[in-house]
Amino acid sequence: MRSDTLTQPTPAMREAMANAKVGDDVFEEDPTLKKLEILAAKRTGKESALFVPSGTMGNLISVLSHCQRGDEILLGDRSHIFLHEVG
């Protein structure tokens, strides 16, 4: 799980993706996504979970849920946001 940009999917992974049941996630009609969020919530011991398609989006949601427009955040010089998101 080092990086999703280095992992090459196996034939079984590609088959699972091709055969996955899908729906509109905005209207909560995607059963596969819903199962993933429920599993993530259970494994982390949380009431619910939200899947986002990228680390950038996850970081943005996290920062915006704690900060207002114009606020500043403190980052370590080895943090992901600082190193990889032009923090």
Structure characterization notes:
The two termini are 24 Å apart. This protein folds into 2 domains: 1-51, no CATH class; 52-87, no CATH class. Helices cover 46% and strands 0% of the residues. The longest helix is centred in the middle third of the chain and has 14 residues, at 31-44. It is built from 4 helices and no strands. This is Aromatic amino acid beta-eliminating lyase/threonine aldolase domain-containing protein. InterPro entries: ArAA_b-elim_lyase/Thr_aldolase, PyrdxlP-dep_Trfase, PyrdxlP-dep_Trfase_major.
Q: Give helix % range.
A: 40-55%
Any low-confidence stretches, pLDDT <50, length ≥5?
none
Shape: extended
Terminal-residue CA separation: 24 Å
Total number of helical segments? 4
Structure described in brief:
The protein has 87 residues and is mainly alpha-helical.
Structural descriptors:
87 residues, 2 domains, 46% helix, L-allo-threonine aldolase activity, ArAA_b-elim_lyase/Thr_aldolase
Reconstruct the topology from this structure.
Layout: H1 11-19, H2 31-44, H3 55-66, H4 80-84
